[in-house]
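Course assignment 3, question 2. Fill in each field.
Student: A.L.
Task: Predict the tertiary structure for the chain below.
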Amino acid sequence: MKRIGVPALRRVPIAVRLPIVMAAFFLAGMIGTSHVALLSMLTELERQVERVGAVYVDAISIMAAPHILAKDRQGVYYALDRAMRLARSVHKHQVLALDAEGNVLAHIVRDDDADTDIPRPENSLFRMSADGQSAWVGEAVWVDGDIIGYLMTEIDISDIRARHTWLRWTVMVVDLIIGVLC
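Answer field:
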């Protein structure tokens, strides 16, 4: 049986083989380090989304806390509706207010794309959707050291994820071009 590839490769002079092997190692190293850098950027992206969402939920809680404390469903609804209309820099699919026992006080859904799997209330909540296009952010609403309710919102992050995907592919193509040119 004839060996394929190895004898043919041995006929290529070492002066040609060595630069090809070095370029392959260089390309693998560039792609590997870029991949690690982009993964760390994705982790940072999730942290930033969580922070922005927490600031948004804190702002909502200032408006909604008196109504949640009074269990005024209409007041909570108006506070959430106003917050959804005023905060234009954060695209929300839905916002939800619960009392301390987990009963729904108000639930506003703005998009058909809203997640139907609403998370359980917790002191602090951050959950990315399975497709990575939205994130749930929520926090407990506190008054005088007691939890009086929970506010949760689903934020659309599809544009942020699209930019991250574009950046990832751009870096990989640039790495490939540099590797081929070297």
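Instructor remarks: The mean pLDDT is 83. The beta strands are 92-99, 104-109, 124-128, 134-143, 146-156.
Grade: pending
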